[in-house]
Amino acid sequence: QVQLVESGGGLVQPGGSLRLSCAASGSIFSINVMGWYRQAPGKQRELVATITSGGSTNYADSVKGRFTISRDNAKKTVYLQMNSLKPEDTAVYYCNANIRPRSYSGGLYYWGQGTQVTVSS
To answer: CB within 10 Å: which end of the chain, N or C, has fewer?
Structure first.
């Protein structure tokens, strides 16, 4: 059973920082691309950042220069370092990963449970 478990969300003031973590567990053969999405009230879920197994990154224009995605392959964990936070960053953040389970020959997409990030004074 493959799972993604997120942590690190919370309340922070504008201009502050927060780091999100998402750890994969279960019967895993390999992990391919990992990423973060977010969903604000009344809006569609949007891509925040992705990182490939080789370390190539991609960011939404709205977070470029402020957020940094990274991963620790040994820990099967992806991180999102969020700096210079703005109220418009307030959303539920979800991690996502393409993972090949031991029981399957190809990659499947998995979602974390979501963690709330609130930026407010």
So the answer is: N
Structure tokens at 17: 């920082």
**Distance between CA 24 and CA 47 in Å, rounded?**
19
Q: Tokens 């990992």 map to which residue?
A: 34
Cβ neighbours, 10 Å, residue 10: 11
Rounded distance between C-alpha atoms, residue 56 and residue 24, angstroms: 19
Tens digit of each residue's pLDDT (9 = 90 or more) over 6-53: 999 999 999 999 999 999 999 999 999 999 999 999 999 999 999 999
Write out 66-95 in H/E/C secondary structure.
CEEEEEECCCCEEEEEECCCCHHHCEEEEE
Q: Which two tokens stand for residue 67?
A: 């957020």
**Side-by-side strand order, sheet with 18-25:** 3-7, 18-25, 77-82, 67-72
What single letter denotes the amino acid at residue 95? Answer: C
